[in-house]
Amino acid sequence: MTKRFLCLVMAFMMLAGTTAFACDTTENLPIGYYNIVYANRYLFFATDGGSTFRPLELPRGTKVNLNDYIPTKEGYEFEGWYTTPREQVERLTEITLDENSVVWAKWKIKDGLSEQQIDSGIVAREVIGNHVVLLTANGETLIAPVTDLWVQQNARLEAMMKLYNQKFNKQ
Fold it and tell me: If you classify domain 40-109 with CATH, what class do you get?
């Protein structure tokens, strides 16, 4: 019984000793207090297929000028960083790292139309070569660049639709 008690006391002392190193020694913080308040924060860049940036690890409260981080994407112009991937209403030029954050890139096709404008009015599309799609939208014919991944996914989708139509659209 005494050996178990001594082992338990030693384990407790070792545990208490390791948690004391986890707190900031410059302030009078209780033992076991993990210094979450002063920990670094991360900023992640979601570039949606554009050039990538490593996540930034900076002290809490640091202001980051997002104009210093401009990605590139073939066939597109960078329009700015946003806090949400879909709505993309409020453009950010600076962000304060009070918490871990993600900023989302917004792109427009170089001919002046955004992807949303093209997607909303597609009447027909055709793959020309490996990197170009012919779009007939709102009575206009447009040529827009696409990635190899898009070409692969489009081919898979067309094959799946062909199988679906053969199975379920019998006449």
Answer: mainly beta
